[in-house]
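step=encode ok
step=design start
structure_in=
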């Protein structure tokens, strides 16, 4: 997920970011969360000057997101299916797991190389529900209450599209969209919806949250959004 670009950043904010970066050098991981809170709302790239600025940025389109865990998390596959299916976290963990190690590329420019993701291939969940002939696309809903994304059915069935339960060799954290997020390896990271709770088969592609603001629906890295990034690999 990414943020709109072009927001002015004043001199005080720039100096504040640099000051926060200096403090982070001294305090190390104790201030990393504070640094993340600044960099996640910085569309200028100035936060790349901060220690740790080359890693992930944490984005949300709402003020706060409730946490869910094994006792209350569910993922529902519905819409144009033969039978709606609801999976608990334990159900997903019991299914065959696929591991992908791939670069993550954000449409705002930053990249993290060689990130391991593990989870269930989305195609396996679609097969469990039974896709009806009228379905040509998949819409993804999230328990933050606002975010959404979509893929064509062919895209959703790719081997490198996961319902991810693990990231960087540990369970997906709440900040990274856990306990379950979507991971679409060859596309810009806004397609990999966080806090995933609904997979809906639809008759046509429905634009996702950022696509209503002009981002491309088909978000292949290096071939969309007016960017020439190297494809992720």
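sequence_out=
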């Amino acid at each position: 997920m990414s943020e709109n670009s072009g927001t002015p950043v004043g001199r005080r904010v720039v100096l504040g970011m640099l000051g926060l970066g200096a403090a982070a050098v001294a305090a190390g991981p104790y201030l990393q969360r504070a640094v993340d809170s600044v960099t996640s709302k910085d569309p200028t790239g100035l936060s790349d000057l901060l220690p740790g600025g080359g890693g992930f940025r944490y984005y949300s389109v709402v003020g706060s997101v409730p946490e869910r865990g094994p006792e209350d998390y569910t993922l529902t596959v519905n819409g144009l299916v033969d039978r709606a299916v609801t999976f608990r976290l334990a159900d997903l963990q019991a299914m065959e797991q696929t591991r992908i190690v791939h670069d993550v590329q954000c449409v705002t420019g930053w990249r993290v190389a060689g990130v391991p993701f593990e989870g269930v291939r989305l195609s396996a969940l679609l097969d469990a529900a039974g896709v009806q002939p009228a379905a040509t696309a998949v819409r993804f809903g999230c328990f933050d209450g606002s975010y959404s994304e979509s893929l064509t059915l062919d895209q959703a069935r790719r081997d490198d599209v996961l319902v991810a339960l693990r990231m960087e060799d540990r369970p997906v954290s709440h900040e990274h969209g856990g306990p379950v997020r979507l991971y679409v390896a060859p596309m810009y990271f806004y397609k990999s919806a966080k806090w995933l709770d609904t997979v809906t088969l639809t008759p046509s592609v429905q634009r996702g949250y950022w696509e209503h603001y002009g981002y491309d629906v088909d978000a292949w890295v290096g071939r969309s959004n007016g960017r020439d990034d190297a494809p992720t690999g």
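step=design ok
step=annotate ok -> The chain has two domains: 1-59, 74-213.
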